[in-house]
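Notes from the 1:1 (GR / supervisor)

We went over the backlog. Supervisor wanted to see one worked example end to end before approving the batch request, so GR pasted a single chain during the call. The sequence is below; no edits were made to it. Supervisor asked that the structure be written out right there so they could see what the output format looks like.
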Amino acid sequence: MNWCHYRFRSVWYLPARPALVGAVLEDAENYPLWWPQVREVLPLDEHSGRARFRSVLPVDLVVTARERRRDPGSGVLEIDMSGDLQGWARWTVRTGPGGAGTRAVYEQEVEVRKPLMRRLAVPGRAVFLANHALMMRAGRRGLRAHLERLASRAEVG
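Structure output shown during the call:
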């Protein structure tokens, strides 16, 4: 078993139209506005950027993300990652159950490249998994609140 290899899958149910959720997820530069653990996103060009993440653990992860697929029609947004994490991530956005809201699925497969985390791979694996789970929970909550703010602005405007 490669202790530095991780596969994640999260499903978020959100009270907004898939088109709006997809548009917010495509706008990676503004993730720090609603996702507390995404500390910084710097565009490099039209299809790539550098992001810095930090969850509960006092360790920053820096990745360069390059767009691999952006298909609003099918609700798929996919990136390749390099840097402290090597691999890919994908959002798949669809109409929610019963035709209400959105079901957003986040999938990620990465190998940790950060030397400290590689050295701690075996004893730290459970902690790293919990750290990721907390980050995803905060992201879901943050996105939900952000979508609610956007909806209330639309009602006022």
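Supervisor's comment: The helical segments are 18-26, 31-34, 115-119, 121-156.
Batch request approved.
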